[in-house]
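[Solved] Which block belongs to which protein?

Original post:
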Amino acid sequence: MSSLPFPSWTGEDRRDRSRPTSPHTHHLDAVFTLARTSEIYDEDTGAHVLRIRHIVERLAIALGWNTDDAELLGCNAMLHDIGKLYVPPEILKKSAGLLPHERMIMQMHTERGARLLAGRESMEQAARIARSHHEWWNGEGYPDQLAGEAIPIEARITAVADVLDALMARRSYKEPWSFEKAYNEIRRLAGTQLDTNVVDALNRCNDDGSLSQLFGLSDRCALRDHA
């Protein structure tokens, strides 16, 4: 993968030294450690959660959040898939479609992640994200079939970031999508799976092409069509 415009997982570089010291620094360090553990079976270890952090922060600011709250949200969003620690690696790494019982096990990562984080005041927001980031705007998601604004806003923001990352990241089984193609797909999901307001904010976030740069892509690059 191309060099990413944010820190690696090693030593002091885990923290973005271009930023002043944050009141969330110690919380961020703890989250980094947990989030990296949740990515242990991922071919893109660590980079996925760092991209999620950056995208979520940008989305929150575009939606009117102040910088400090957006930074904390981005930090907590890195734990969205912490419940996958409880999913057997043979299911996590399976390239073919999941069988019904495997899909049920996979979907349980939301509840298990929330339980893992519950009971800690500093992790309340992270627990809401872990539980609800697979809820759909139309109520057809899981685990609680929440709909619309009943879905925590933190989870709605993280859901858009997670879909963007799934489409734009390079994987062994697919080429990365351009931002334009990924955004068009996300726009198609607005109002059914995703919150339209958050989707609108996503387009504003890439005015300078910075989201594309997270994936080592140029907005002008030619990519194969995977429609």
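(Second protein starts here: sequence line, then its structure tokens.)
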Amino acid sequence: MRKALVPVDGSANSDRAVQHLLTLAQTNPALEVLLLNVQPEVDDWQVRRFLKKEEVEAMEEAKGGDALQSARAILDAAQIKYQPLVLIGPVAETIAQTASAEQCDGIVMGTHGLGAAASMLLGSVSSDVIQQTTVPVT
């Protein structure tokens, strides 16, 4: 693997995916890492009624930055270089599109994230990403 996309949401499962990435990086020191958090668009008319679009996007980007903190700490401690990225949009679709657009040859992600009820067996986002991408998912 030359370039890995690592979608994270701040959950313990995301951290385990990052730990797995460390194993991959040991065997491939030249591995490029793209650390991604996707914030779903706020489509709540009540929120948009009181806040400008730019304010909502700034809040979403701040939440995304918070979600990256744990993964960043793990990668920093292991001295693994990475590019952090926060995007806003449909989560699974944005992950799949980013993997393709960035020419990643692997996606390393957890099976369950912070979405509780929607991720009973295989996390709904993980399952959706697998269905929407041709990039191998680990």
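Accepted answer:
You had them paired correctly. Confirming on the second one: The radius of gyration is 15 Å.
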